[in-house]
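Reopening closed ticket. The problem is back. First fold of the pair:
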Amino acid sequence: MSSDHRNAAPAPGLARATGSDRRGQLGRLGEELACERLTALGLRIVARNWRCRTGEIDVVAAGPDLLVFCEVKTRRGHGYGTPAEAVTPAKRARLRQLAAAYLAAVEHPACRVRFDVVAVHWPRGHAPVVDHLEAVF
């Protein structure tokens, strides 16, 4: 697991948004941080928010002989648990099914597959903390 305390200002625009718009913006910003982290590790982002009729994969990244399916969870606080705890057994099973659908739908060379979680904790008024959990399931 790697952790990063960003020296960024609080997310611009979130103070003006309301309700689900604010959560959607926060989620998109968390996905952007996840992509930055994966890219910094030498992976190439090949898909963001890949959708099929059964759901969505937040990020798909590629490395040498590797595809990484990444679930991104961004939270303001721990009132409902940590971001990583939000990736329940049901969510893991669904991500496995979505990965199988992706592999069937998208042409790619034979490779290993890995499932990662990027958890972003972004308290109001503070910089985000990014935790990258590799091969968590």
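Second fold of the pair, where the issue appears:
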Amino acid sequence: MSDAGGGAPPKRGKTPRTATGGRALEGRIALVTGASRGIGAAVARRFAREGAHLILAARTQGALEELDDEVRAMGGSVTLVPGDLTDFDTIDRMGAAVFERFKRLDILVGNAGALGTLSPLGHIDVKTWDQVMAINLTVNWRLIRSFDSLLRLSDAGRAIFVTSGVGARPYWGAYAVSKAALETLVRVYAAEVAKTNVRVNLLDPGVIRTAMRARAFPGEDPMTLEPPESITDLFVELAGPACTRNGERIQAY
């Protein structure tokens, strides 16, 4: 790692605030995966504006550094973790480093994802299947494995995992299967922490203007879609100490 510098979900456009009107995530330590672009980058910017210290993980170092410049320009603080999370030892090392420096983790956002190929199940090559499962499912289990104890050390640990509304749609193959498995994983974890200070939820962002959406629907005009910034209120709500929701699948639409 390197330094650089409850209730119903709110409607889009409503800004969560503390009871005193301050920043909703002041002083919270937040880890966001897939943070270099799209939903992850939008969440990172919003969390920074709400006062969180960011730990940002993504494969693209250049994009992370650009995001770091943005966050520092708004007065935020960031720790960058460039690298491939499917090198699972990286996650274990990250957990050890977070404990050594911060002694806790307040917010975990499991956002990194892979689409794979859209084709019949029997046509998906093994490498693509394994890669999608590794990124969409196993990475999130490894995050739970490495950061569960740190979330429990927080006075209000919060974990948010990004899912999808794709369901059992034909030809979505590995992506659809991996998201279904992710939802079961998260619900199991939520049940296990139900009697602790940790709250764990799934967030389905709906149709959002992202690079993954453009890959899946290349003929679609992206400017007709909502930008990632339009759903960040929900992330703030679910990440805040006041959130009491647990084990829920929340739609942003």
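Update: turned out to be a display glitch only; the data is intact. The helical segments are 38-49, 61-73, 89-102, 126-153, 173-192, 211-216, 232-239. Residues 4-15 have pLDDT under 50 and may be disordered. Please close again.
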